[in-house]
Amino acid sequence: MAPPGTFRTRWTRLQNRIAARRAAWARPATAFVSSPEPRTIGSFARGRQLSAGNFMLAGHLVQQPGLPIWDITAPDAAFEAEQHGFAWLDDLAAAGDGPARAAAQEWTADWIKRYGAGRGPGWTPDLTGRRLIRWINHALFLLAGQDKATSDAFYRSLAQQTLFLGKRAHAAAPGLPRFEALTGLIYAGISLEGMDHYVAAATRALDRECNAQIGREGHLVTRNPEELLDVFTLLTWAAEALGETGIKAPGLNAATARIAPTLRTLRHADGGLARFHGGGRGLEGRLDTALVASGVKTRRTDGLAMGYARLSAGRTSVIVDGAPPPAGAASAGAHASTLAFELTSGRRPLIVNCGSGANFGAEWRRAGRATPSHSTLVVDGTSSARLGAAGAEAEWLSQAPRHVPVQMSQASDGVRFEGGHDGYVRRYGLTHARTIEMTFDGRGVAGEDMLLALEPENKRQFDAAFDATRMQGVPYQIHFHLHPDVDANIDMGGAAVSLALRSGEIWVFRTDARAKITLEPSVYLEKSRIKPRSAKQIVLSGRALEYAGRIRWSLAKAQDTPISIRDLAQDPPYSGDDDDQDED
Length: 584
Prior knowledge:
alpha+beta
């Protein structure tokens, strides 16, 4: 993607503005062919907060009771995009009460008055597609009790935005933005009178995009699980809409059949997605809804999908990043997380990655992408991949691991993952190898991390790094980031850490005597919150003194922990200002 300020970007914006103005000049008369069926899922709690004037968008909380959403000065471009994308309409519809309906109707009508003439930042193909889907999904909610003039303006704006998409959907950036634009165009073409001539071309374009962007194994080049879920959700919406009209889209249906087994592999025991490469857990209920809508029930039997490996037994799941990070433009949101893992027990995450800090500013974004923010081994406090220096490709990864062999196999009492990466070979001559084993009942996980200088050239590199430490050894740390709800305490005289989950389960972390064990501060980054949540991490520290070294560790349920146990405490309901309680 061209960086901001380049000729290509400026040209695209100019073409969008021209197409928006031309669409706004048109006065097409239209109506719904049939009453659309809402498919998007919102949050009742967030809807109540919105109607009360607490605007939680893109990680920012703006509290302005009684103020229309368009009178709020956006803190950044991401906030502005969420304003004009109208995904918040799902939340107001989920609330569904009088204040929520009044806010939805007022803010939609106000958007038409302010921006309907082709002005404002909302006239991009991806935001227009996202907005059309919401307007069509919630049309009955928006039009209930409205007068004829307001309804006519609503229909006219729908048609004008459809005309704009018909001209500019192809110009959306490849990936999720283009999927949004094309799905919105298909939605509008099927739902609105006089717009059906867009459906065939948009369906063919969506088929081409599926073939180009979704790999044979149902993956995206960004390797972002949540982005894959977003694409999958859009495709299931488009497939349902097309299926209701009898239109066939073989490329689209084949893509959903490839993606569904991949998403099942990337799902933890609690139903949430693994948090890697900028992705979060996914909106609650969205994955299950999309999987049911797809009708695809198959799953991957080898435990490998989109470069991730999944070990599961009993009520425990472990997901490991077992592939090189994305390269080039696809790495703009990627993390240096090779061989990092997450572990979930039942409904409760235990070992996690810090997550994406994109919603908390540039510094948090870079920190969240660094290797120390992931549950893996770090050599000398450096990342296994570098973020580019300031400039046109500032967000791209460089010097990343390229050779990442992995293998899944059966252990004597469970299942085993083995992998390695060369991300530290260039600077230290060291290869990181990791083995993780899980018992058949899911009550025990054993790991081994190794640092190896394999080739003669690697040994010379290690010798140079070793000499630079004045013969003290190359320092390393192994991070195990804990979910904020985990209560951790050093136990057994510093030889172990007891980990209490809110479900009542007790896990015990142990390691051999080769590394120092400490409990240190950490953070948990969620885009649904306005602040990073304070958490803890277990850190094993040591120094590499030889060409080969290993550190063993284990996680096991305490002997008195039942096989199945209900949560002792429920999650607190969301509120716009509840994040303060997460700060130390």
